[in-house]
């Protein structure tokens, strides 16, 4: 989800300015309707929805004009694929509280990727995490809520801070157990806050310690979502397009 989609219109589809185009994506359990913006008379632009599973969906380009019935201009299939970012987000989500898995992730620290790759990884994994259907009981600290803060252990927050993943850290902070993870020491006695300080991640340290710290700039900060029952409406400020998602 959240990629830019460009639609090229054929000559016969280039119509008057008062015609509004939108895309309808129909999956097995969820349907999305996105508005579009005109780049020029022959091109439209919109944002792909974050879908609930990896599958091929039906997509229809529709045209609407006041006083006229809605017209289906074209239909095609659109595939949501499972990429590395999705795999990484799913793996990390299942790692919460699993000490063996979290200790394994520390191998990544020894082969630190270049800053540009870290930024790309951070953006992609944080977006994938946003689109995962996490269980209602999911917690950054894992399922075993009987563990106290005094028990040294590795957490997902340690992982995100160790690699300097600003956006993923922000996402985890908003989840259940996110704030509680900040005061947990690992086996070396480090908390996520002390790790950020020790590694010179000033922005990250600020994010963890300042009460009114703002979300780091990213593609996802350009969007705002409102949920209501089985529906949600998302506004992407960057392109000024709207998306309505409904559970079928």
TrEMBL record:
GO biological process, one term: positive regulation of canonical NF-kappaB signal transduction
Taxonomy, superkingdom: Eukaryota
Protein name, UniProt field: AKP13 protein
A GO term from the CC aspect: actin cytoskeleton
Molecular function GO labels: MAP-kinase scaffold activity
């Amino acid at each position: 989800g959240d990629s830019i989609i460009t639609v090229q219109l054929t000559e016969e589809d280039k119509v008057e300015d008062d015609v509004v185009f939108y895309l309808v994506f129909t999956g097995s359990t969820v349907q999305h309707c996105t508005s579009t913006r005109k780049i020029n008379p022959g091109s439209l632009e919109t944002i792909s929805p974050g879908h609930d599973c990896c599958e091929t969906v039906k997509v229809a380009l529709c045209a609407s004009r006041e006083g006229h019935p809605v017209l289906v201009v074209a239909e095609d299939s659109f595939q949501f694929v499972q990429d590395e970012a999705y795999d990484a987000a799913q793996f990390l989500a299942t790692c919460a509280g699993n000490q063996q898995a979290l200790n394994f992730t520390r191998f990544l620290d020894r082969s630190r990727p270049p800053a540009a790759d870290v930024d790309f990884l951070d953006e992609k994994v944080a977006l994938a995490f946003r689109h995962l259907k996490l269980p209602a009981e999911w917690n950054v600290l894992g399922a075993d809520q009987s563990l106290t803060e005094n028990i040294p252990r590795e957490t997902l927050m340690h992982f995100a801070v160790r690699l300097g993943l600003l956006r993923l850290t922000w996402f985890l902070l908003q989840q259940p157990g996110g704030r509680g993870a900040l005061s947990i020491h690992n086996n070396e006695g480090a908390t996520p806050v002390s790790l950020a300080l020790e590694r010179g991640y000033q922005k990250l340290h600020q994010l963890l310690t300042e009460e009114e710290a703002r979300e780091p700039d990213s593609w996802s900060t350009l969007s705002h979502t409102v949920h209501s029952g089985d529906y949600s409406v998302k506004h992407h400020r960057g392109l000024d397009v709207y998306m309505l998602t409904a559970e079928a």
